[in-house]
Design a protein that fits this description.
heterodimer; A: about 270 residues; alpha/beta; 9-stranded mixed beta sheet; two-stranded antiparallel ribbon; 8 helices; 11 strands; about 30% helix; B: about 1000 residues; alpha+beta; 7-stranded mixed beta sheet; 31 helices; 40 strands
């Protein structure tokens, strides 16, 4: 089988491209990190890839709103290419800052496949502070990205992660099953004794998809939860495993998301 | 034409709600509503259509409204409010949002802003409520800093009458004729002293700001130019001042001191490292010479570390000072060897109690108030947040420390760990050398008036003459672009031969430093890109504008390098050529304005022999009892709860959580450990995604010991920094150290006496433990001179502070151990001896008790125990582990219990060492102790592994969520509910 090709965008303050690319490689993809300007001036083309990832980061320092300036750049230069990419049988994921970018671009939720209309927003956290912690989620829609997963735990790290949309849109999201992930009380929030919803997100929404399910935007970071030792409770799990003479795992829960992308193309 | 666009929230605005809450907390309860409007003032002509488009690009259609109007801003509908307060930047202050907005517009219309055009951001806060004008002004004062920002206020009536706020364009306007002047040195010694202290005189009689050159230095310069038969130009004198500054040359550590001809650095710090490297397996790769120190990571990589202080700028503008500090030390990683990638940030903040405000003023008339401790704290925390988070560098480790003597000047420590391949295209990456003929290239940001006299300024005590131009604000995204372009691309193409950071002294220091490698430099200064026209050449040369690196690039590589930087949106400019002329020459429009012998520039400064006197308590060895004057409380639950609430012990989770510590995916042991999220002293990262090797970092400081016993203070710092790392799983034989001396009044013989003792301890204990110093930095004048609330002169000196950081490599990250207890019925062991060593301890600070018995360190005993403990960890025998530090054993027990959310049942009976009182046993800060738990079945194996060392099983972990401690006589002295303990541990900063 030829490996599916993933492109991970970088530049202007995106900063999680290396570990995101590593996740795709670990799962079995061929991953290239490409600076957006190399796409803009045509050195590199999206049509060579099956997977596009907008990784986490702090593009343009969140100035004028998280994800806004980078989304403007994409819209000004790459909109046609993106649209061509979407109509092919492809996958796209926006993680954290990437989620803010695909939301600003209107790639999610894109009701009636109307890509480009901005319908949802990620606004400053309820606490008005950046927050880094682990959360638990349940999967609430059908998407290749989350295939076979019902609940999972991943960390968040963001200043503007509070999901917001109009009442009408929220109803639509529910009705069309485009809410992909919702924060719930689970093993990590229990372990850490923290509230389920880390940022005051409307409807506990942590991630949404487009109608095809092939484009996923999520605030939590699968690439920061793909190794066992990234879990905050790993020393406890290890200690218990040692006593039971069991081997400790090497993967974290996030890796499955990358594996799912590869599975989709196999 | 000037247009203003205003953007407001059409949904709940978290920022406005938070600001209102904050103001309520400050006592402005009369505010009933608060709204915020973001203003973009566009100084460039656009059509109505274009403006509409710009406004839509700057706002979020789901959550925001925009309004715009030429000339004046109008809020529609005119909402109800009492006061409108607009706050924006002063001319020339870095405006990051303005910068991004400019890029958005340029990209949108494929246009470029001219140098005379610009975008400036500001914010209007609308206040509603019964608020008087003085109160409104006070509120404004609490949300803006006049050193960097401007403020305009209008009442509702004024606002309506004028049709909005006035249009202000904070454009920098300077006289457009740069001047170069000569400085007459044929003057009296008094005048020389004045020039050195207050700076070169301007034609109008004002002075340019401190050169920090004392009379000895000035006379040496006078002599030098006498020989040359000319006077120096202003740029030459400024350049010498930068290079010779305490900040750059570390003269106090370099100069002879008493009988030590080679000075403190060579005699104690450097010599320790040299001796250690000779006697054991050498894991050091680059020490003291480069921007960071480096040790071997594995066969493919080196890891680097550097810790800096940024105290002085942080008191003027805490946010700007701190953000500049963190992004500045990031460049110390990027500037190591051929450029290391920053992989972890570290912070350490020393403040006065933020809960009380004791007003201080810089001037006798009380017009220049020093920012309150709370504002300094908030600003500093925000600054490192913005700098670290936006740069995509995780911050797994840090500390806060509080002491009243940081009220005049905070201690702001920032550090960065870097990762670099050992070889790049077959060449050793830590070697670099500019060659004659290589181009001098400035990369990154542009040069403005910001940060002028930063190096000389921080070498002086702070007073009312402190220049506002010393304040600057970092721009993490400009730096991130540059960092990515260097460490992720250009470095691996070997396009340059050398690289260094533009930090203190700006170009004057970076070019002179790199010029040492080739043997000279020729700079064409007018080529340096400026933020705005009108800088004098001397200002361009020494400005400390941020986000810049200097590189040497072989001519044949220029085209490729320049093309790459253009594609990455990073400005690269040739500003000269490295030479082997032996001189550092600067021309400006073909006229030579500086021609200094490199030898004189670097080595011309005269040595001054420093004299010390013993500090009175510094030899307090004899007294070992802990001064029994304080009463032992009958209620130890209450005492322990109060200890857990203390500023120096309590949780600072609010900082840990707002600093991204998981970016780059390298987190292993982060800032918060266990179910109870307890702040640990040690962190572990896994820098290479495909490898299970790790890097471990910790630190220690004991400023409260310093005045009593500086020698044992330093010994305790070293032992604690090592022990913290060992407790988590570091190999004690492979740890390196960093030293940061943050001293006060270092021109006073008594302070120098304390310094000498501390430095001697550094040598003694580093050698004893075999832990080499790889890098260090000092800041010697942390004194505030000003006035108190009665206008009386006051001097506040920070307590002599030594921060020791430890740094090492972990073979397998899954072998490290966290601090939280894991399983009921596990056995709790105390390793090491407890003595009545409570001088300067957190307990005695709480009790206001004094004593001379600072903990002493038995390095031979400890070293043996640490080695044995490391073996036990490697064998997976340890379930949890914490180093006993500030607050002593009782605090360590509580942290372990809170961490694991389980109880403990402990007895202090027969506790090893010598201690006669329960409270002393609970809170003594004796060094060399580790508190651990093990599974019952590991008892025999563990005791065997630790054979020959002092260990005692003092209790066990219980399911019952209570911290129970029996005293020396076996009676119960603490029975503290875990919930209550947790509440105490977390309540102090609950609402921060």
């Amino acid at each position: 089988m030829t490996k599916p090709k993933a492109i991970i965008l970088s530049g202007y303050g995106l900063n999680s491209e290396e570990e995101t690319a590593y996740g795709f490689e670990l799962a079995g993809a061929h991953a290239d990190i490409v600076h957006i300007d190399d796409l803009v001036d045509g050195r590199c083309k999206l049509n060579n890839y099956q997977i596009v990832s907008f990784p986490g980061g702090f593009a343009y320092g969140d100035d004028t709103g998280a994800g806004n300036a980078y989304a403007n750049k994409v819209r000004n230069h790459l909109w046609e290419e993106i649209q061509k990419f979407i109509v092919r049988d492809t996958l796209m994921i926006g993680i954290c800052n990437g989620c803010q970018i695909v939301s600003n671009l209107g790639l999610v939720p894109a009701f009636e496949k109307n890509y480009g209309a901005s319908e949802v927003a990620l606004v400053p956290n309820q606490s008005a502070q950046f927050i880094t912690r682990w959360t638990d989620m349940k999967v609430t829609s059908k998407t290749p990205w989350l295939d076979g997963i019902t609940t999972l735990s991943l960390p968040v790290a963001h200043g503007e992660g509070k999901f917001y949309t109009s009442e009408v849109n929220l109803k639509k999201l529910h009705k069309k099953k485009q809410i992909a992930l919702q924060y719930i009380s689970g093993p990590m929030s229990t372990y850490l004794d923290l509230p389920a919803n880390p940022n005051g997100s409307l409807g506990d929404i942590a991630g949404i998809v487009d109608e095809t399910g092939k484009i996923l935007g999520l605030m939590p970071h699968p690439e920061r939860g793909m190794f066992f030792v990234q879990r905050p409770d790993w020393p406890l799990i290890k200690e218990n495993a040692t006593r039971e003479k069991k081997k400790i795992p090497s993967d974290g829960p996030g890796l499955q998301i990358f594996k799912n992308a590869i599975k989709y193309f196999s | 034409m000037v247009t203003r666009i205003g953007i407001g929230s059409k949904i709940f605005d978290t920022r406005a709600i938070t600001r209102q809450k904050k103001l309520h907390k400050l006592g402005y309860k009369s505010i009933t509503a608060l709204q915020i409007l973001d203003i973009y003032t566009i100084d460039k002509t656009f059509t109505q259509n274009q403006l509409e488009k710009i406004a839509s690009k700057l706002s979020n259609p789901v959550t925001q409204n925009y309004i715009f109007r030429t000339e004046k801003i109008k809020v529609e509908p005119p909402t109800k409010f009492t006061w409108a307060i607009e706050i924006g930047f002063l001319p020339g202050v870095t405006d990051n949002i303005g910068h991004t907005t400019k890029e958005i517009i340029e990209d949108l219309f494929k246009t470029k802003f001219k140098d005379t055009e610009g975008i400036y951001t500001s914010q209007v806060t609308f206040l509603e409520g019964k608020i008087s004008k003085p109160e409104a002004l006070e509120i404004a004062g609490s949300i803006y800093n006049p050193l960097i920002k401007r403020m305009h206020i209008k009442s509702f009536t004024e606002f309506t009458k004028d049709g909005g706020m006035d249009v202000v364009v904070p454009k920098v306007k300077l006289s457009l004729k740069p001047t170069i002047s000569k400085v007459n040195l044929h003057v009296s010694d008094d005048e020389l002293t004045k020039i050195g202290k207050q700076g070169i005189a301007n034609p109008d009689g004002t002075r340019r700001g401190p050169l920090a050159l004392d009379l000895t230095y000035m006379k040496t310069i006078q002599q030098h130019f006498k020989k040359l038969k000319r006077n120096p130009t202003d740029i030459e004198l400024e350049s010498l001042a930068q290079t010779w500054s305490e900040h750059c040359k570390h003269t106090i550590f370099a100069d002879p001191i008493d009988e030590l001809k080679d000075g403190l650095f060579k005699t104690y710090i450097k010599k320790a490292t040299e001796e250690i490297r000779k006697t054991k397996e050498d894991f050091c790769v680059s020490v003291f010479t480069d921007n960071s120190g480096a040790i071997a990571f594995d066969e493919n990589y080196l890891i680097t570390h550097k810790v800096e202080t940024h105290n002085t700028p942080s008191i003027l503008d805490p946010f700007g000072g701190a953000i500049t500090g963190i992004v500045g030390v990031n460049r110390d990683a990027m500037g190591f060897g051929m450029g290391a990638k920053p992989i972890a940030n570290f912070y350490g903040f020393c403040f006065a109690d933020p809960r009380v405000d004791i007003p201080l003023y810089r001037d006798q008339k009380k017009t220049q108030k020093v920012l309150s401790s709370r504002r300094i704290m908030d600003g500093v925390i925000d600054g490192v947040n913005a700098g670290g988070n936006q740069s995509g560098i995780p911050t797994p480790q840090g500390f806060v420390y509080f002491h009243e003597r940081f009220r005049g000047k905070p201690g702001v420590f920032v550090g960065t760990v870097g990762l670099i391949p050992r070889k790049i295209k077959g060449k050793l990456s830590h070697r670099k050398k500019s060659r004659p003929g290589d181009l001098i290239v400035m990369l990154g940001g542009r040069v403005g008036k910001d940060g002028i006299h930063g190096a000389t300024f921080s070498s002086e005590a702070i007073d009312s003459g402190s220049p506002a131009t010393a304040v600057q604000i970092g721009d993490p995204i400009t730096q991130k672009k540059m960092s990515d372009a260097i460490v992720k691309e250009a470095r691996d193409l070997l396009l340059y031969t050398s690289i260094t950071d533009n930090g203190a002294g700006g170009l004057s220091c970076s070019v002179a430093e790199m010029g040492k490698e080739s043997g000279g430099a020729l700079v064409t200064l007018e080529k340096v890109p400026l933020k705005y026209p009108g800088l004098d050449p001397w200002e361009t040369w020494i400005s400390e504008s941020q986000e810049r690196m200097t590189l040497s690039i072989p001519k044949k590589n220029w085209e490729k390098f320049s093309e790459l930087m253009k594609r990455r949106g990073v400005e690269a400019t040739i500003i000269g050529e490295f030479t082997d002329s032996g001189n550092c020459v600067v021309t400006y429009n073909d006229k030579t304005i500086m021609d200094l012998d490199m030898k004189f520039l670097h080595d011309g400064l005269p040595q001054r022999t420093l004299k010390t006197t013993g500090s009175p308590a510094s030899n307090a060895v004899a007294e070992t009892t802990a001064g029994g004057r304080i009463m032992e409380s009958k209620n130890q639950e209450k005492e322990l709860s109060e200890m857990l609430e203390r500023l120096n012990i309590t949780s600072f989770e609010f900082i840990s959580q707002q600093y991204d510590h998981i970016v780059q995916g390298n987190a292993v042991i982060g800032p918060l450990q266990g179910r109870g999220r307890v702040n640990g002293d040690t962190s572990v990262i896994r820098p290479v995604l495909s490898s299970n090797k790790g890097a471990i970092m910790s630190q220690a400081l004991y400023p409260a010991y310093s005045e009593i016993d500086p020698y044992n203070m330093a010994a305790s710092c070293i032992d604690s920094a090592i022990r913290n790392a060992v407790a988590t799983g570091a190999n004690p034989a492979k740890l390196a150290l960093l030293d940061n001396f943050c001293w006060c009044s270092s021109n006073e013989p008594e302070r120098l006496g304390q310094l000498k003792l501390a430095a001697k301890a550094c040598y003694d204990y580093a050698v004893a433990y075999g832990t080499p110093f790889i890098s260090g930095k000092d800041s010697m004048f942390n004194d505030f001179k000003g006035f108190d609330n009665n206008g009386k002169p006051i001097k506040i000196s920070v307590p002599p502070t030594l921060l020791i950081s430890s740094f090492g490599v972990i073979d397998d990250v899954t072998s490290v151990v966290s601090l939280d207890v894991k399983t009921p019925e596990d056995l709790l062991y105390l390793l090491g001896d407890t003595y009545e060593e409570l001088a300067g301890s957190e307990y005695f600070e709480m009790k206001n008790a004094t004593s001379n018995a600072v903990p002493k360190v038995d390095s031979r005993k400890n070293k043996k125990m640490y080695a044995a403990f490391y073996k036990a960890i490697k064998k997976n025998l340890i379930a949890s582990s914490i180093s006993v530090g500030r607050g002593g054993l009782a605090v360590a027990i509580a942290k372990k219990a809170i961490g694991g959310m389980l109880g403990t049942d402990v007895s202090l009976k027969n506790i090893p060492g010598e201690v006669t009182r329960d409270d002393f046993a609970l809170y003594s800060e004796s060094q060399g102790r580790i508190l651990i738990t093990i599974a019952k079945e590991n008892k025999a194996a563990f005791e065997k592994a630790l054979q020959g060392n002092t260990i005692l099983q003092i209790g066990k972990v219980t399911k019952d969520p209570t911290i129970k401690i029996k005293g020396l006589k076996g009676n119960e002295i603490v029975n503290l509910n875990l919930k209550k303990a947790t509440n105490s541990y977390k309540k102090t900063f609950k609402d921060y």
